[in-house]
Amino acid sequence: MEFKLYSQYALPSHHLVWTKNAISTNQADPFCSTPAWQITFHDAFAPGRRLLIESSDNSHIAFAEHIVSPTEVYLTPIESHWCFGCPLLGKHAVEMLISFLPDIENKYATPPKILVSGIRPDGVLSQRLIQAFAPKFDIYIYNSSTQGVASLQNGLDGYLSRRSGNHRKKLKKQARRSTELGISYERVCPMSAQEAEATYSRMIQVELTSWKGIEKCGMAETPAREFYDIMLKRLSASGDGRVIFAKHEGKDIGFIFGAMAGNIYRGQQFSYDDQWKDYSIGNLMQIEKIRWLSEEGAKRYDMGPVSGPQMEYKTHWTEKHLPIQAWLLVKK
Fold this sequence. Notes:
With 332 residues, the protein is of the alpha+beta class. The protein folds into two domains: 4-146 and 323-331, Gcn5-related N-acetyltransferase (GNAT) (Aminopeptidase, 3-Layer(aba) Sandwich), CATH 3.40.630.30; 153-298, Aminopeptidase (3-Layer(aba) Sandwich), CATH 3.40.630.30. The protein has helices spanning 15-24, 35-45, 93-105, 124-133, 155-161, 165-181, 193-209, 211-214, 224-236, 281-296, and strands at 4-5, 50-56, 59-69, 72-77, 88-89, 113-119, 137-151, 183-188, 241-248, 251-261, 264-272, 300-305, 320-331. Strand 9 and strand 10 form a beta hairpin. The longest helix has 17 residues, at 165-181. 41% of the residues are buried.
């Protein structure tokens, strides 16, 4: 057991085991539990932290050290901003963490507080944490959110059959209008860092013309710009990035971007030129994305958080909502 400093853009040697465990352990947000999300956050947001990353017996733990003062230390998920992913993966992950605690506590003046995210309140991990920690730790709910999920069973037709009649009617009308306007779509799956860089440059150019770019509150701003840049390049090694561009007369007017985790797709960002705001470009790109995923045999579309006023639109696109929580464990 060792806390390590990782050089920027590096991946731990057992990242493949980590990814496998994230995909196979019934996470509410599998992709955000993989190193493609977790280590990318570390690189873009807080590369100076020491990390505790260990795999054993088909289980995995991944934490970051956060030192506020000599007497106030935290172990947090590596991605601790949104708290989407889970740092404890696999049947024996809680046992592994418990076994490391004596050595961990000996490193500091006071026992560190432990933040565990991505917990499904009705899942097995919540029960394992209570059984292992409740006798000696106070357990607090640090935050909570709800993830939106859409089944891709039976492809695009199956997906549309689970939407309301009114929603289907609007999508059909929007698609007909886009055809009349000559809007087309380009699929991109970067397979090298160079392809990822070129793709990301196109995405940023679209972003700058969007309302988020105009108001300087989107992914063209630091550190989000670096975060998604690193992510797309990292995904190119496995070919798991998925980008669609909406185009009109040869010009990019929109993009939608996400990534695969096994046969589950996780949406990340979409944006479109503000001059096209009245033409439902976002909806049209969603349908094109679902068409592509269906052709590839994807089983699920994870759309991320559905809670909050800016996320309400996702309720029309998802039919299953998965609550997740982050718990703070404080030694009594």
